[in-house]
Amino acid sequence: MLKRLEALESANERLTAKYEVLKRATLGGVAFVSLLLIGGAAVKSFATIEGSEFVLRDKANRMRAALAIRPDGTPGLGLFDEAGKVRLSLELSPVGTPGVNLLNATGSLAAAVAIRPDGTPGVGLFDARGNARVSLDVNQDGTSGVNVFDQTGTLRAALAIKPDGSPGVGLFNPAGEVMENPVNEGGPEARAVAKIQ
């Protein structure tokens, strides 16, 4: 508990120091602009605003957006709800691949769109516990697929376009094993898949 309190105090001190620097920079900027205006120079716009962290706050002083360079050196943008939870994040990985994450009200990942390190795109949909339930993928060879997972994260169904252009459908049992004869092992959805195959 003491370590947590010390960590919170340390974080509070860092935030206070950042606030003071920001306050001084703002006052300095206002003073500079005032001097330009008093001196007769017209200030219409700034071509560049630079910094390593930008925070957008609402009228109640709640952080609603943050653009920052993260500790690993990568940029990130987060949008926050009124409760202070990140609901949308845009980021680049250390190898430069982009990602968009949508989070639910509890802060759990609900959906993600990303470019993987191999350059292929993917979309994932997640349940309230953060388990992947559906994924959409395009592979390097141009094939594509849809995977459906159960609540334990086990692959249960897949639909894909094979390299030769033909469609493929697979059903899997709760152990993730291919169902050899889906008509005998499943209900109406299994029989429908059997007709497609």
User: Average pLDDT value?
Assistant: 79
Radius of gyration: 25 Å
> Domains counted in the coordinates: how many?
2
Strand residue content: 35-45%
How is the main sheet built?
11 strands, antiparallel
Question: Which helices and strands appear, and what pairs or packs with what?
Answer:
Layout: H1 2-38, E1 53-57, E2 63-69, E3 75-80, E4 86-92, E5 98-103, E6 109-115, E7 121-126, E8 132-138, E9 144-149, E10 155-161, E11 167-171, H2 182-185, H3 188-196
Antiparallel strand pairs: 1-2, 2-3, 3-4, 4-5, 5-6, 6-7, 7-8, 8-9, 9-10, 10-11
What does this entry look like structurally?
With 197 residues, the chain is of the alpha+beta class. It folds into two domains: 1-48; 49-196, Outer Surface Protein A, domain 3, CATH 3.90.930.1. Helices cover 25% and strands 35% of the residues. It has three helices and eleven strands. It has helices spanning 2-38, 182-185, 188-196, and strands spanning 53-57, 63-69, 75-80, 86-92, 98-103, 109-115, 121-126, 132-138, 144-149, 155-161, 167-171. An eleven-stranded antiparallel beta sheet has the order 1-2-3-4-5-6-7-8-9-10-11, with helices on one face. It starts with a helix and ends with a helix. The model is unreliable at 1-5 and 188-197 (pLDDT under 50).
